[in-house]
Write a structure and sequence with these properties.
The protein has 195 residues and is α/β, with parallel strands linked by helices. The protein has helices spanning 3-14, 29-37, 56-66, 71-76, 114-124, 127-138, 144-158, 167-182; strands spanning 23-28, 45-49, 79-83, 96-98, 107-112. It has a 5-stranded mixed beta sheet with strand order 3-2-1-5-4.
Length: 195
Amino acid sequence: MEIIKEFFTELDRSWRLAAAGKVQLRVIGSAALMLGTGYSRGTKDSDILETADIAGEVRRELLALAGRDSVLAVKYRLYLDIVNHAIPFLPQRPNFRQAGLPRLKNFDVVALDVTDVVVSKLKRFSANDAADIRAMAERGLLQPAALAARFQAAVDVFSMDARAEDLPKYVRNLHSIERDFLGVPASDIRLPGWL
């Protein structure tokens, strides 16, 4: 079993809070790629998108059991980081898939779809982000038309507020991966007219 799946399995075994049903954990970033594709690279955190399920006592317990300084973090060299839902560059309705952990009793772990992970990585576009995107392209997991469509959907969300001023940079990042990793022409992305 991959280390990230072992991490979530042990978190599930350690969970003591009673709940009406399973708590959904929406994994994003490189951890989602690892859960969804079998891709592997060193990472220190498993980003979980903040949802209504992850509040109050549930949030505190998650961070106590699997946060940065937890026993699980020391054991697996991996920790949970809960990310505010407004931060990632994503379409209004991100696509999530089951993460292949059906035997968990307390959690429903879902991983952000590969294409949406790639879209979200175009905001920061660090060296690790570029390496992750290249790996997905080399595995044939990125379809240029789908990538452009999901990117446009994220642009449409960001174009309504102050974050829009950064969109031209994200478009340049998209065009570089289309050219360098996918070998296709730059897609035509509609930006707000005031930019």
